[in-house]
From TrEMBL:
Subcellular location: Cell membrane
Protein name: Transporter, major facilitator family protein
Coiled coil feature spans: none
Topology relative to the membrane: Multi-pass membrane protein
Keyword match Transport: yes
Species, as recorded: Ligilactobacillus salivarius DSM 20555 = ATCC 11741
Transmembrane segments: 17-40, 52-74, 94-116, 147-169, 175-193, 220-246, 258-278, 290-314, 374-396
GO MF term list: transmembrane transporter activity
Domain Major facilitator superfamily (MFS) profile residue range list: 15-402
Pfam families: MFS_1
Any single Gene Ontology cellular-component annotation: plasma membrane
UniProt keywords, alphabetically: Cell membrane, Membrane, Transmembrane, Transmembrane helix, Transport
C-alpha cells in the first residue's frame, strides 16, 4: 500500500538512515570475507591450483545462483508481508550462515553455507524496495543513488578491515565479526524502521499478468531487468582478471597486491564522489536520460581499457567507470519505482534482483571464457560490446514508451 504524502516527513528519513546503515554493514561484511575466501579454503586441505580455483568459484557463484532461483518467491512474500520483514529475514539468516562459515572444517560445508546464504539473502535489494515505497516521489532519484553509496562504501572499507583482521587473528575471525554485524543490522531494521504497509491476503494479490497490464510500457520494465543483468555481468566479468592483468602490466615486479587493490577499488571512489549529485540530477531531468548517458560513457571507457600498458592508467579509467556506474543501477531502480504500481514493488524488485544475481553468475564465466580464448584485455572489448547492446535496448524501449504515450 502506498503511503500518503503527508505521512512521508514523519518517518521516512529515520527509516532511510537505518536502511542505509544496514546496507553499509552488508557491503562491509561481504567485502571483509569474500576476497580472502580462497585463502581460507586453502587452509582446509591440500588442493591443487585447479581444485582451489574450482572450489573458490563454486563458493562465489553458488550464492548468486540460489539468489536468482528464489528471489521471485521472496518478492511475492514481500508484497504480502512487507519489505521490512524481508530485510529482517535476510539479515537474520545471513548472520547465522556467515558465522557458521567461520566454523567450517571443509570446503563443501562452505559451499553449502554460501548456497544457503544466497537463498535467504537480499537485504540491499529489499531495503531499496522498502525505501522506494517510503520516499516522496520528488526525492526518489537521490534516495536510490544514496542507497547505492551505502554498499559501495562498505565494499571499499571491507578489504582494508578484513585484511588487517585476517592478518592479525586468522581468516576465521572476519566471518565471526561479520556475523555479529549482520545481527546488528537485523535489530537496527527491526527497531528503527517503520513501513506504511497494509498486509494483502494471498487470494487478493493481483497476478503478475494483471500487474503488467497496468504498466503503460512493459517492454521498458523488461529492458530494465536485462539492463540490470548486463550491468552486473559487465562488472563481474572484469573482477576475476584484474589482479592477473595488473601482474602482467607490472611484469611481475613490485607490490602487485597493493596496486591490484587500488585498481579494484578505483570505481568505488568514483561512485562515491558523484552518486549524490547524479541522484539529484535524476530528480531534475529524469532517470532515463541519466541511464543512457551512463551507458555511452561506459562504452567509451571500456574500449581504451583494452589498450592500456600501465596499471595506473587502468586505475584512472576504472575511476571514471565508477562515476558512470553511479548513473546505472540507481537509474534502473528509479525507473522501476516510478513506473511500477506500489502493490507490486516487492515482486518487481525481486525479479530485478534475480536478473542482477544472474549477471553475477554469467559475468565471471564469460570473462573467464573470453580471456582464455583471446587474452585478458579482450574482456574489456567484449564488455563494451555488451553495454553497447544495452544502450540500443534502452533507446528502443524508451522509443516504445513515447509511442505508447502518444
Amino acid at each position: 500500500m502506498q503511503v500518503k504524502v503527508n505521512e512521508y516527513p514523519k518517518t521516512w528519513k529515520r527509516t532511510f538512515i537505518s536502511l542505509w546503515l544496514g546496507c553499509f554493514i552488508t557491503g562491509l561484511g561481504f567485502s571483509m570475507t569474500m576476497p580472502f575466501m580462497p585463502l581460507f579454503m586453502e587452509t582446509l586441505g591440500n588442493f591443487s591450483t585447479w581444485q582451489l580455483n574450482l572450489y573458490s568459484g563454486l563458493a562465489f557463484s553458488m550464492t548468486y545462483l540460489s539468489q536468482a532461483i528464489v528471489s521471485p518467491y521472496w518478492g511475492s512474500l514481500a508484497d504480502r508481508k512487507g519489505r521490512k520483514l524481508m530485510c529482517m529475514r535476510a539479515s537474520g539468516v545471513m548472520a547465522f550462515t556467515i558465522f557458521l562459515t567461520g566454523l567450517a572444517q571443509g570446503v563443501w560445508v562452505i559451499i553449502f553455507l554460501r548456497f544457503l546464504q544466497g537463498a535467504f539473502s537480499g537485504y540491499i535489494n529489499n531495503a531499496t524496495a522498502f525505501i522506494a515505497g517510503e520516499t516522496p516521489r520528488a526525492k526518489t532519484g537521490s534516495a536510490m543513488a544514496n542507497m547505492m553509496t551505502a554498499s559501495v562504501s562498505g565494499n571499499l572499507l571491507g578489504p582494508i578491515f578484513g585484511g588487517a583482521i585476517a592478518g592479525s587473528f586468522g581468516y576465521r575471525v572476519p566471518f565471526f565479526i561479520t556475523g555479529f554485524m549482520m545481527l546488528v543490522a537485523f535489530f537496527l531494521t527491526w527497531v528503527n524502521t517503520k513501513e506504511h504497509f497494509k498486509p494483502v491476503a494471498k487470494r487478493e494479490m493481483k497476478p503478475m499478468k494483471e500487474i503488467f497490464s497496468q504498466i503503460s510500457n512493459t517492454k521498458l520494465i523488461i529492458s530494465m531487468f536485462i539492463t540490470t543483468l548486463i550491468i552486473n555481468a559487465s562488472l563481474m566479468s572484469i573482477s576475476p582478471i584484474i589482479s592477473l592483468l595488473v601482474k602482467r602490466l607490472m611484469h611481475g615486479q613490485g607490490n602487485i597486491s597493493l596496486v591490484s587493490g587500488i585498481v579494484a577499488a578505483a570505481p568505488g571512489f568514483g561512485t562515491l564522489l558523484v552518486a549524490n549529485k547524479l541522484g539529484h540530477k535524476m530528480d531534475e531531468i529524469g532517470p532515463e536520460k541519466v541511464l543512457i548517458t551512463g551507458l555511452v560513457v561506459e562504452v567509451l571507457l571500456f574500449i581504451p581499457m583494452s589498450l592500456v600498458t600501465s596499471p595506473w592508467l587502468l586505475a584512472v579509467l576504472r575511476f571514471f567507470i565508477g562515476i558512470a556506474d553511479a548513473a546505472l543501477l540507481p537509474a534502473v531502480q528509479t525507473i522501476l519505482s516510478v513506473d511500477v504500481p506500489p502493490a507490486a514493488f516487492g515482486r518487481i524488485f525481486s525479479y530485478n534482483q534475480s536478473f542482477q544475481a544472474s549477471g553475477g553468475v554469467i559475468g565471471p564465466l564469460l570473462g573467464s571464457f573470453v580471456s582464455s580464448l583471446f587474452g585478458y584485455q579482450a574482456v574489456f572489448l567484449f564488455t563494451a560490446l555488451m553495454l553497447g547492446f544495452n544502450f540500443i535496448l534502452v533507446i528502443w524501449s524508451q522509443h516504445r514508451q513515447v509511442l505508447v504515450k502518444k
